[in-house]
Amino acid sequence: MKNKIIFFRDLGLEQWSKTVNKMNNFILSRSFYTFDEIWFVEHYAIFTQGQNHQKDNIDFIHNIPIVNADRGGQITYHGPGQQVVYFLIDLKYRKINIRQLIDIMQTIVIETLHHFSIRANIEKKKPGVYINKKKICSLGLRIKKGSSLHGLALNVNMDLTPFTYINPCGDINIKMTQIKDFNSKITLEDTRTILIKKLSKFLDVIMIKKKQ
Does the predicted model carry a pTM greater than 0.70? Predict the structure, then answer.
């Protein structure tokens, strides 16, 4: 039964550090009997540097905090209007490797965008999802105790300006885009609803909302 259910939480708008602390505590305290969870959250404005990024000895960029993250990948920006999805999945139990999880993450985003009549694709050797060569979704994962942490960040309806202060994902050529640029009527709630449906399909599970 456990393998057919994944709980999901809607954390609303939350400080990045608070969410990450809760995520790490969840992974450290979980046992064989713990159900997998997927968290939906928006973050207050923040830059996060992944483990592959050469760390900058600064605390702010244009008054926005910059912090180190224990995920893979380079530097990115989080802010209100971006749907962040954290995957707290026991990969060993589900017989999924990290490459397969990345493929699933990219697929559910592409399928969600397709639902809204937005055509998206992946780029070779560039994790994430793109539209017309512009990036709309970034990925970053870490594996701890056989379980995944972190996940994806899908730009929905946000201020993209802070992305211009950095080289997103460490690539000077990457430009960012968002769902709003293609359909301004689509909300975070609309996006979240379809993402949940696609997660149910591609992970072959029943998604059940968990109370906070």
Answer: yes
